[in-house]
Every structure is written in C-alpha cells, then in structure tokens.
Amino acid sequence: MKVLVAVKRVIDYNVKIRVKPDHSDVDLTNVKMAMNPFCEIAVEEAVRLKEKGIATEIVAVTVGPKAAQEQLRTALALGADRAIHVETEERVESLTVAKLLKGVVDEEQPGLVILGKQAIDTDNNQTGQMLAALANMGQGTFASEVAFGDGVEEGEIRVTREIDGGLQTVALKLPAVVTTDLRLNEPRYAKLPDIMKAKKKPLDTRTPEALGVTVASGLSLLKVETPAERKGGIKVGSVDELIDKLKNEAKVL
Amino acid sequence: MSILVLAEHHDGQLAAGTAHVVGAARAIGGDIDILVAGDGVAGVAEAAARLDGVSRVRVADAPVYAHQLAEPLADLLVKLADDYSHVLAAASTEGKNVLPRVAALKDVSQISEILSVEGADTFKRPIYAGNAIATVQSSDAFKVITVRTTAFDPVAEGGGATIEALDIVVSSELSRFIGEELAQNERPELGGARVVISGGRGMGNGDNFKLLDGIADKLGAAIGASRAAVDAGFVPNDMQVGQTGKIVAPDLYIAVGISGAIQHLAGMKDSKVIVAINKDDEAPIFQVADYGLVGDLFEILPELEQKL
C-alpha cells in the first residue's frame, strides 16, 4: 500500500513568537523553523507501517515556499521514499491546502493519507478533515493507534481516536485519512547517514496551477495582537497562608 | 441571519458546552436553531429546547447518527446548510472532527475556536498556542465556526423552542463505529469544572496522581495533567490541559509539579485564580500564578488535603 504523508514547515515549537509592530502578523524573519511536531508523528507512523510490511512506498508532500523543501528532506531522512513539493509563496488556508493535497491524492492514488491533527502556528485543526471530505474518504482524526486486520475487514483500517472523555475506535474503508495525536508514537531522530542519503532521493515540484487549484482565501487577517499578559502574583510561605489567601483574598474557596 | 448550532450530547445528556455555543450564536445575532443528531435523542432535544434564545430544535433521530461519526453528521449538516448563514459547534473533539468536513463540502473556510464575536463576519481567535490573537474576517456567504466554550457565557434555561423532527437519513459507507472506552468517574468534566487541579512531570509517576484525588474531592475539582505527564505515561491523554489538549478557564486552577511550558499555559492561563506548587522557585509557572508555594509536593499535598 502506498502511504502519502503531509508535512508542514512551521516555527520551531521552542521559539517564543513576536507580533510585528504594525500588528499585521507574527514576525517570522530570522526565526528557527522546523517540521510541525504532529507531522513528525505522521512520518514516523508511515515509516513504522513500512517496517511492518504494510506500507510499500512512502510519499511525503508539503505545500509552501521553496524553503519548505528542508522539511521534505527531513521526511526523506526519516524514511520517506520520495517527496512532492507543491510550491507557493502565498499564504494558504487549510481549505486551499486540502484542495492541493486532493490534487496530489488524485495523481498518486495512495491507500492511506496521514497528516498531523493540527499545525502549531495557525492551530486550525482542519486540513485532514477537509481533505477527507474532498476526496470522499473516511477520516480517523486524533489517532492514538492504527491497525490492520485486527478486528476489521480486508480493505479497512482500524483507528483508535482520542476524544473528550476517552477513546473511540472506528473502522474506515480504505483509502482513508488519518490525523495523528500525541500518543500515536514517539518519532525517531534522523541519523546522519540517512540525512546524507535523503539528499539523493527524488523530490518533484508541482504548482497549484498544474494541480488545477486557484489559491484563494475566504478569510482576511485584519489584525494580530499579543494577548493581555498575565501578571505573576506572590509567593506564599505555607499551606495555611495559601488557604487563607484563597479564602479571604481571592474568595475562591 | 440564521444560525444553526450543532448540539453535543453524551449518554442521553445535552453537553454543557452547547449552552456556551448558543451564547456565541446570540453574540452574532439572528434566529438560532439547534440540531440534535443521534439515536434515541428525544431527551436531548427537550433539554436543548429549554435553552434561552433558541427558536427551533431540529432532531435527526436515526441509528446512522449514533456515536456522532463525522462522515454522516457532515452530510446531514450540508443538507441543512442552505437554510443558514452560520453553523456553529463547540471546539471539542467532536466539533473539530465534524465541522471542517462541512466547510470543505460547502467550499468555504472554517474559523476555528473563536474567542469573541466582533461582528457577524469578524471574529478573534488564538494562534501560536494563544501567544497571539488574530482578528479574522470571513467573506464566505456561509460561515463555519467552532467556538472556544470557555470564552462565552452559557445562556440560561427557560426558553421554549419548538421541536421539529427531520427525516433526513444519510448513508454511511466510509466509516463504522467499533467501540468506545470512556473514563468513568464522578468528577466534573475538565472543560466545565469550577476548580481544576493538574499534575505535571513533578508528580513522578501515575500512582502519585492519587495524591490529587482527596483535594479534588474536597473542592469538587476536575483533575488535569500537563503534556509532560501524559508523554511520560503517567495519565491518559484526555486529562491533558494545553495547546494540544483541553482548554480550561476555571475559577481556581492549581498546578502541581508543572513547570509551565508555553504549551501548557495556553490551556489554562485564562483561569481566574492560578495556584502553583513546585519545588523549583524559578519555574516559569510562577510568572503566571497568583499564589505560588515553593516546596516538596509530596509534603504539601497531604497537608493541603487535611487542612481544606
């Protein structure tokens, strides 16, 4: 089975962001970028499926500027066989990304598509669900476990989902879309020889035009602000003092 | 304008979040309908009809809607979409699962997890784990929105909306339900609790989370955890408070053995009063805590439980 795995270039999760002085957006100049953490989990799951002999080929795909090829090389170093870069310098919304990925799905005909559940920049949590809708596939969002054959029929995937209050297990007809949650796996680090080898793996580029997608936007970003800072309070010296403050000052007990 | 709110329900009970979503719908203004979809949901529909400001509760009661799978629910919402200018749901795992599918099928953008309504087409929402707040304006004729329930007051009860049965049954060939494992406990739900006490990596192991039980019992609190505690395998993921877990805003939040990574702060910094208990007096959690207590949590917790 061919597995398509989508990755996104985002600000490194350790970086503290700054809002531009004109409030037009977050300032990303000279900021360290990295693969979105949930996408790392997606790549790792694809690699594990290949190690188990379920996946036969892993194709990594990203939508973004030229620099996003760095994240595709990371995916290749982690075990993807080849990569597709849908190149655009414009700000793309989840719906546009989903349409572009649908174009790649039509070309590649994967048996399974794995994405991160959300990107840590826009925190939208939309793209996987939108792709599933556009491709008329079932969706296993917020996955903590995926399995084949285990209680599900041939041509299905079993996905255990992290939902409010616990876990839900569904069977999806293949091809299907899975989005990853934290506990699905612990991603490995790329080894140096694999990073060298990744430079020689095939990386094709596509344009939105070639995929028949117009980069449009239904949302305009009017303003970006820093949230009101919460001020630190005081240190108390004992449990008694804490209880006293909560009762008599904060009045929450 | 007319707004459709997707009701959320579990075990025949209307979820508390739905009244908050109706609160957001009222801030937008216009006629408000609620959609209750499920299998055997007459009681849920009656509860939804009591919410203030709701004109009509539309009920799709059929086996295909049991377990609220995204594929049939999205198809149902799309069939109803032409009657509405907005569709709203809570930014819960259910709303997040279903609504983007609706948006894509209607070829519109989704506005995720709104914090405030600035106008019928303009909303504030958090980005970068809440470290920035974006104001976005939608030019789509049909607006698909998920709502951060803690950011909106719930509407009261006392309304008397009409209840209307829908006979729309969609097919469901893409997915089927296998099973559910829901945490069984008597505690309030994390998202709606008045008091939350959370443990972090400093708890040391999952067993030590029992130290929080007695305090939670006395305060009527929900118990949460940091991502570090979940990653370390101490507790299940549905207890996670933070950017990638639950967002809470209780009257009192007690962080125990939590250092205060920005991903965790994103999930709790709108709490009214924050207490931090940590042995490291340099821990970043103290920068947002109203009351900090530096010390060994294994001594502090039993003492706190006893003295409360």
Quick synopsis:
Chain A is an alpha/beta fold and 253 residues long. Chain A has helices at residues 37-51, 69-78, 94-108, 127-134, 192-198, 239-249; strands at residues 2-7, 9-11, 33-35, 57-64, 82-87, 112-116, 138-147, 156-163, 166-173, 176-180, 203-206, 219-225, 234-236. Chain B is built from eight helices and 18 strands.
Q: What is the CATH topology classification name of chain A?
A: Rossmann fold
- Total of helices of chain A: 6
- The portion of residues assigned to helices of chain B is 25-40%
Q: Kindly report the average pLDDT value of chain B.
A: 95
Describe this structure in words.
Chain A: Residues 23-215 form the Electron transfer flavoprotein alpha/beta-subunit N-terminal domain. Chain A: Keywords: Electron transport, Transport. The complex is a heterodimer of chains A (253) and B (308). In chain A, strand 4 (57-64), helix 2 and strand 5 form a beta-alpha-beta unit. In chain A, the strands form two sheets. Chain A has a nine-stranded mixed β-sheet, sandwiched between helices. Chain A has six helices and 13 strands. Chain A has helices spanning 37-51, 69-78, 94-108, 127-134, 192-198, 239-249; strands at residues 2-7, 9-11, 33-35, 57-64, 82-87, 112-116, 138-147, 156-163, 166-173, 176-180, 203-206, 219-225, 234-236. Chain A is globular and about 65 Å long. By secondary structure, chain A is an alpha/beta fold. By secondary structure, chain B is α/β, with parallel strands linked by helices. Chain B has helices spanning 17-28, 42-49, 70-80, 93-105, 210-219, 227-231, 262-268, 297-307; strands at residues 2-6, 9-10, 13-14, 31-38, 56-61, 86-90, 110-114, 116-119, 122-127, 132-138, 143-147, 162-165, 175-182, 195-199, 222-225, 252-256, 273-278, 291-294. In chain B, helix 3 crosses helix 4 (93-105) and helix 5 (210-219) packs parallel to helix 8 (297-307). The radius of gyration of chain B is 20 Å and the shape is globular. Chain B starts with a strand and ends with a helix. The interface between A and B is large, with 83 and 91 residues. Strand 13 (234-236) of chain A pairs parallel with strand 18 (291-294) of chain B, so a sheet runs across the interface.
